[in-house]
Amino acid sequence: MKPVVIRAGNFWDGISEKPLGPREILVLGETIAEIGKSVSEPEGAEIIDLPGHTVTPGFIDCHVHLSLRPELLGSFWSYSPSYKALLGAEALKTLLMNGFTTVRDCGDMDLHGFTVRDLKLAGERGIIPGSRLVCSGHIISSRGGHMNAMLSLAPDSHPWENCLADGPDEIRKVVRNEIKHGAEWVKYAASGGFSTAGDDPLQVTYTQEEMDALVAAARDFNRPVSVHVFGDEAIRRSVLAGVRSVEHGSMVSKETLHLMEENGVYIVPTQLMATRPARLAADDAFWQALNAPAHMRIKVRKYQDALLKGARNIASGKVKIAFGTDLGIFSYRTNGACEFFEMVKNGITPVRALRAATSVAAELLQRDDIGVLAPGRNADIIAMPGNPFKDITVTERVDFVMKSGTVMRRNGAPSL
Ligand SMILES: [Zn+2]
Questions:
Q1: Which residues, 6 or more positions from 210, have their beta carbon under 8 angstroms from its beta carbon?
Q2: Model pTM?
Q3: Tens digits of per-residue pLDDT, 217-267?
Q4: How confident is the model over 306-332, as pLDDT tens digits?
Q5: How many Å lie between the centroid of ligand 1 and the Cα of residue 328?
Q6: Which of these, 15, 18, 56, 74, lies nearest to 379 by C-alpha position?
Q7: How far is the CA of 13 from the centre of ligand 1 (A)?
Q8: Fewer CB within 10 Å of terminal CB in the chain, N or C?
Q9: How much distance in Å is there from the Cα of 6 to the middle of ligand 1?
Q10: Is domain 59-364 in CATH 3.40.50.1580, yes or no?
Q11: Domain ranges for the chain
Q12: Distance, CA 244 to ligand 1 centroid (Å)?
């Protein structure tokens, strides 16, 4: 690989309070070698000029579903694992082109097999282009809980459901089965949700004893745990059980947020999915784009005030926020960077939102090679026209993407 020097009109490292002004970055191989007002220029180096652009670390989306689309909700058994793999490959490429150099899949919706693990292998072996992938296996759920309630199946129908478990013994077995099949994180559902027909976001779907057993089983295998959860009681129990990240957490109280702060638990608030619908009129075009089922609209109406209050609680506290979109619930035609605008709209400062998708996300994922631009770090580097600290929506117009030192998009056009 040729050495590369990037000349950034403006530069933000993923940590600082604000952009640091013009900088040059020397990339050798897959790694950042040097950053400064001017860097050494090895012979034959390729120069990439990005005037008028802010250069930042590649974004990290900590909550996507590669094998989910709105049209699959409620009909998982009508689509084969191969179809879901094709959807996932398309999603990984789209995410990368939008500047998301790393994503964590937060629940494989291939309930027959392990499609997301296969996508990860295919990506690492260079078979498909796309974002770096961290995978969580399936969302472990109680019977009647979130991963069961989305099914409108006849009572005598028993398809293979590889993620349902009740009671500590069965839960331990399913946790270990997910780990056996490549889960780097363990994900479970502690409450109902919005996208599913047969449950309610305020239900608590596991006992404290069950959550404790699940987190302990994961911890013995050095696997962090993330939890799908909306209501306050289910969040509180999950935090007591020892989860690393609360996903959604939309109706969290200030008391529970304090408990999260004390325990160093991250929140991934997925506000594009939670608060944007809550603010909209029932006939807004966004619902069309979301392709949302009727029960979702009804539940969002029901909990509208609670969702917006929870968002205010999250913005006003000190809890560690990591960026996540829940894409897959949406079509991948929605650029996940819209989440930045939503976070800022909910009172989260631009710097906190941007750190959420860079340095804080890397911290959540326990990665010291991504999320920050510094010598020795992976050369995951993106650029956007303008300054996201002044106009957060420029994050939606990323037009330069480098992943591990390879340019994947330049001048707005994909290099793939
Ligand atoms: Zn999700």
A1: 142, 166, 167, 168, 171
A2: 0.96
A3: 999 999 999 999 999 999 999 999 999 999 999 999 999 999 999 999 999
A4: 999 999 999 999 999 999 999 998 889
A5: 8
A6: 56
A7: 28
A8: C
A9: 36
A10: no
A11: 4-58+372-414, 59-364
A12: 16
